[in-house]
């Protein structure tokens, strides 16, 4: 238990030491600015703000701390160790910089593959010319890829349990039909404790704060030699990293999508973990795991894209008008109307288009009867009681067609900012 307790102390230090607190605050500010866009899009499309920027940011930080603790404990127990002079912090700095610049390559799989490739080339050059390897370019491939595997494992858990928070409804056109879906974009700031291997001479004889290792440690043998441990000490060093999830679905509900994505990520992490352990055997497996990290990640994303294309769209208005989403605090939600339900009739009149429903529902001055087809196929009638309360119904319809004088918010490969601008322009056109 000593090594686990020591790991928790290092995480606690990362959450209380002024320098690290400032760093976490800067990350939180960056996340907050992105979450303001998410909340604005929810308000424009649904009619009200579903999640406040503060709520979204706090959940990202809190969930990230829990995930960081889990990842750190797993890595320290496994025996993930890095050399004193290796520039492992580049891995975390790269993920943070890419989050701001290009989320597409924020994943640790890409930066770890670069570091691993550099380390292998460094080893080849030193072997050919008989020189000493450049210390800061030398990485333990097994430890590096094991760490990436563990981080993806906790990322999969984060996606499953928190990936759909702050989702935003979007639309696209497929086979001359308007289909609805959801875009999800989440980032989590993780405090990570990593074991660093230091030479006793470099510490000047001061070994205060060294990591106590029990008899069973490490769980995975072979990453460091016994002879090396005799002349070195182990220190736990805190870092901050960022994990991210960015996806869109038109064929699943929000929960189904994040569970599917999360399981894919966990499966990828397990395969990467196994290959990382094989890297101890020879250079072939080292090269294999370094190549698999980015290529396997791309294959995982490609499979999900293909599944998304081949699956039948979930939100299409065939019979009546389908509800894409409802705001939790709206009248529609109180009436039991949920995403995936379809409005068949209002006051015994068939509803063929979204305009039919909107025209009736926006001119309510008395109680009305709504006939719903629930997503499980059940037919249900509900009574909407007129009230002077100014709350909106809070429903997003999936239109059957787009009138010539209107535009639909179409999702392709646009960034969040571009989609937000489209929504703003659509609203301006509507006001004119």
Describe this protein with a few key phrases:
single chain; 432 residues; alpha+beta; 6-stranded antiparallel β-sheet; 11 strands; elongated
Task: Give the arrangement of secondary structure elements.
Blueprint: H1 2-16, H2 18-46, H3 53-78, E1 81-83, H4 89-101, H5 108-129, H6 141-162, E2 168-174, E3 177-199, H7 226-230, E4 232-249, H8 254-278, H9 283-310, E5 315-316, E6 321-326, H10 331-334, E7 342-346, E8 349-350, H11 354-361, E9 368-373, E10 379-384, E11 395-397, H12 416-431
Parallel strand pairs: 1-3
Antiparallel strand pairs: 2-3, 3-4, 3-5, 6-7, 6-11, 7-8, 7-9, 9-10
Helix pairs in contact: 1-2, 1-3, 2-3, 2-12, 3-6, 4-5, 5-6, 5-9, 6-8, 8-9
Structural commentary:
The protein is α+β, with helices and mostly antiparallel strands. Helix content is 49%, strand content 19%. The chain contains 12 helices and 11 strands. It has helices spanning 2-16, 18-46, 53-78, 89-101, 108-129, 141-162, 226-230, 254-278, 283-310, 331-334, 354-361, 416-431; strands spanning 81-83, 168-174, 177-199, 232-249, 315-316, 321-326, 342-346, 349-350, 368-373, 379-384, 395-397. Strands 6, 7, 8, 9, 10 and 11 form a 6-stranded antiparallel β-sheet that branches. Strands 1, 2, 3, 4 and 5 form a 5-stranded mixed β-sheet that branches. Strand 7 (342-346) and strand 8 form a beta hairpin. The chain is elongated.
Rounded to an integer in angstroms, the radius of gyration calculated over CA atoms is 26 Å
How confident overall, as mean pLDDT? 83
From N to C, what is the helix and strand string? HHHEHHHEEHEHHEEHEEHEEEH
Largest sheet: 6 strands, antiparallel
Count of extended strands: 11
Q: How far apart are the termini? A: 67 Å
Q: Helical element count?
A: 12
Low-confidence stretches: 405-416, 426-432
**Percent of residues in β-strands:** 15-25%
Alpha-beta content class: alpha+beta
Q: Provide the helix percentage.
A: 40-55%
What would you call the shape?
elongated
């Amino acid at each position: 238990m000593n090594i686990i307790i020591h790991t928790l102390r290092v995480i606690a230090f990362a959450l209380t030491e002024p320098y690290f607190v400032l760093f976490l605050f800067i990350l939180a500010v960056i996340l907050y600015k992105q979450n303001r866009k998410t909340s604005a899009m929810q308000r424009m499309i649904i009619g009200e703000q579903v999640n406040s920027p503060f709520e979204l940011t706090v959940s990202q930080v809190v969930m990230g701390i829990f995930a960081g603790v889990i990842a750190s404990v797993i890595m320290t127990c496994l025996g993930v160790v890095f050399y004193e002079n290796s520039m492992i912090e580049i891995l975390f700095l790269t993920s943070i910089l890419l989050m701001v610049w290009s989320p597409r390559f924020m994943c640790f799989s890409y930066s770890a593959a670069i570091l691993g490739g550099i380390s292998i080339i460094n080893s080849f050059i030193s072997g050919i010319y008989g020189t000493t390897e450049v210390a800061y370019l030398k990485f333990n491939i097994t430890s590096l890829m094991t760490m990436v595997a563990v981080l993806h494992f906790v990322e999969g858990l984060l996606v499953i349990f928190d990936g759909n928070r702050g989702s935003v409804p979007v639309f696209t056109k497929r086979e001359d039909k308007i289909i609805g879906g959801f875009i999800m974009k989440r980032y989590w700031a993780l405090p990570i404790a990593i074991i660093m291997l230091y030479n006793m001479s470099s510490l000047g004889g001061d070994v205060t704060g060294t990591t106590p290792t029990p008899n069973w440690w490490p769980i995975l043998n072979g990453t460091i030699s016994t002879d090396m441990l005799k002349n070195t000490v182990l220190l736990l060093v805190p870092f901050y990293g960022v994990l991210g999830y960015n996806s869109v679905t038109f064929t699943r509900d929000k929960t189904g999508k994040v569970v599917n994505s999360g399981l894919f990520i966990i499966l990828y992490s397990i395969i990467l973990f196994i290959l990382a352990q094989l890297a101890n055997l020879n250079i072939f497996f080292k090269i294999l795991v370094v190549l698999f990290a980015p290529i396997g990640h791309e294959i995982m994303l490609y499979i999900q894209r293909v599944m998304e294309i081949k699956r039948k769209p979930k939100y299409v208005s065939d019979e009546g008008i389908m509800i894409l989403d409802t705001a939790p605090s709206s009248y529609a939600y109180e009436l039991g109307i949920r995403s995936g339900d379809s409005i068949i009739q209002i006051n015994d009149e068939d509803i063929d288009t979204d305009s039919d429903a909107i025209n009736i529902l926006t001119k309510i001055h008395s109680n009305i009867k709504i006939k719903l087809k629930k997503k499980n196929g059940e037919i249900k009638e509900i009574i909407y009681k007129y009230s002077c309360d100014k709350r909106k119904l809070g429903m997003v319809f999936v239109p059957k067609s787009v009138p010539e004088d209107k535009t639909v918010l179409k999702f392709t490969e646009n960034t969040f900012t571009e989609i937000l601008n489209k929504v703003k322009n659509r609203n301006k056109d509507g006001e004119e």
